[in-house]
Specification:
Chain A is mostly helical. Chain A has helices at residues 2-48, 53-62, 68-79, 87-102, 106-118, 124-171. Chain A has one domain. Chain A is built from six helices and no strands. Chain A is elongated. Helix content of chain B is 25%, strand content 32%. In chain B, the strands form four sheets. Chain B has a seven-stranded antiparallel sheet with strand order 4-3-2-1-7-6-5. A seven-stranded mixed sheet of chain B has the order 14-11-15-16-10-17-18, sandwiched between helices. The chains are: A mainly alpha, B alpha/beta. The A-B interface holds A 46, 50-55, 79, 82-84, 86-87, 120-124, 127 and B 12-16, 75, 78-79, 81-87, 89, 119-120, 196.
């Protein structure tokens, strides 16, 4: 009886691990989507309000962009903390801090860092075009991550069960 | 004048490095801070120019002074633009920025033209930070001279730069708005220095501010929607301004504005024509370095 329960437990644990991995991947997709929407929102605010970047980021952080809201909130706070730091440096530091938490791929990080390095230094039209092109790049990332997720989810679930069974067999 | 407030307001907008240097400077007589690439950091006070050392003390020779680098200028520009060049694009093309507190930063650099219009200023070679100071009561003696039959007369202030045109306009607004509705068209955010909707200078309780509106558009919009009794604006010059002032006068509204010049005689024919619209010209000048009212001239008026 204990052996059967143990076997079920091991299979369940392996499946749970697989599900956790899948959830992490879908969360990462949500975060990329959050950045994409935020970039488009920043572009619109630049176009129609021409407000300074810190104030735009503050407003963005109060909108619903999931976990990315925290990221924008921190950038905004650091831009207005009275040290007058450069946006590019602050942005990169905050990206590094949030990389693990937001579970972003190196390519996505490169796109996001590129935005931080360049925005705020150009004319309005150039800023808007740049942000729109960054959003398109993030779109490609979302597509790639989604197709990977659908591939991986089946693989992870079945391999979770298989690994579980395998461990049970070894123990028995 | 609240010197400690002005000092902290300016220092907070500077990169930390310059904050340290300028924190030792006496702000009570400070008029300008000059940042020129590869040149000594200089300040302009009531008693003249002086070079500044890295410790913020007076430098008596060029080699003791702090030399401003291109990187310094880039950092200063980033700080003054709040990391948002796009938000200050129009001002940059006009050659200056107005920062929090109404202080003005003049820009020198390389001009980028497109179809005859300035679209950007790059390779910044110098910045001139001009300190805006509020002298409450400086127009108290002038105002009674601008009233006829209980009405404000259409007035133009004429003076070279740094003779207090903006300061007097600001105080006139404060005084007039004690009894009349005033609208300020603040194209450069200097008169009222609005920041996030909050007026930084005391321009009076019955004063509406149209911030960063082009003067001509702002004047017409104010007549249509704000029913002002007096419109105050700074530095008119172009043809559009001429027509806008004319529309304001035709609408029965009073105008007080300013113009660069030394007197009513030595002006271009276009500007002389503009003067015909006003009832009164107030000429300002500096005497022994102190701005004062040189002359009040009755004009034809329309």
């Amino acid at each position: 009886m204990i052996a059967v329960l143990g076997a079920f437990f091991v299979i369940f644990a392996c499946c749970a691990f697989a599900v956790k991995k899948i959830t992490e991947q879908s969360k990462a997709i949500e975060n990329i989507r959050g950045f994409k929407q935020a970039f488009l929102h920043i572009a619109k605010k630049m176009e129609f309000e021409a407000e300074p970047i810190a104030s735009i980021m503050d407003k963005i952080s109060k909108e619903n962009y999931g976990e990315t809201a925290e990221f924008f909130s921190e950038v905004s706070e650091r831009l207005t903390d009275g040290t007058n730091g450069e946006l590019a440096q602050i942005w990169n530091e905050v990206v590094n801090k949030y990389t693990k938490k937001l579970n972003l791929s190196p390519k996505t990080i490169r796109i996001i860092n590129n935005v931080g390095t360049n925005i705020g230094k150009m004319a309005q039209n150039a800023e808007i075009e740049f942000l729109e092109s960054a959003s398109k790049e993030l779109d490609c990332e979302i597509e790639a991550a989604e197709s990977e997720l659908s591939k991986n989810s089946k693989l992870l679930k079945s391999s979770g069960i298989l690994v579980g069974i395998f461990i049970v067999i070894i123990f028995i | 004048m609240d010197i400690p407030r002005i000092k902290s307001e300016i220092l907070m907008q500077l990169p930390i490095h310059f904050r340290t240097i300028l924190s030792n400077v006496d702000f009570s007589s400070l008029q300008e801070v000059r940042f020129r690439c590869a040149k000594p950091l200089m300040i302009h006070t009531d008693s003249g120019d002086m070079m500044i050392t890295e410790k913020g003390e007076r430098a008596f020779s060029q080699k003791d002074s702090y030399v401003v680098s291109a990187k310094d200028l880039s950092m200063l520009m980033t700080a003054f633009c709040e990391n948002s060049v796009y938000a200050y694009q129009r001002e940059i093309c006009d050659g200056f920025l107005t920062i929090k507190g109404g202080h003005r930063v003049g820009i020198s650099g390389r001009c980028v033209l497109s179809e005859g219009e300035i679209i950007n200023v790059t390779d910044i070679s110098g910045l001139n930070l001009r300190i805006a100071k509020e002298f409450k009561g400086c127009a108290e003696n002038l105002l009674p001279k601008l009233i006829y039959n209980n009405e404000i007369v259409n007035t133009i202030l004429i003076s070279p730069p740094q003779c207090g045109k903006t300061t007097i306009l600001r105080d006139l607004s404060r005084l007039i708005s004690q009894t009349k509705k005033v609208t300020i068209i603040d194209e450069r955010s200097e008169l009222a220095a609005v920041k996030s909707g909050v007026v930084q200078f005391d321009v009076g309780i019955r004063t509406d501010v149209l911030d960063r509106f082009p003067k001509s558009m702002g004047m017409l919009l104010a007549i249509r929607s704000l029913s002002p009794e007096v419109i105050i604006t700074d530095e008119i010059g172009g043809k559009e301004d001429y027509f806008a002032v004319k529309s304001v006068l035709n609408a029965g509204c009073r105008t007080i504005t300013s113009m660069h010049g030394y007197d009513t005689e030595n002006l271009s024919s276009e500007r002389k024509e503009m003067l015909n619209m006003f009832d009164c010209a107030v000429v300002l000048a500096k005497k022994n370095g102190i701005p004062e009212i040189k002359d009040i001239i009755k004009l034809a008026g329309e």
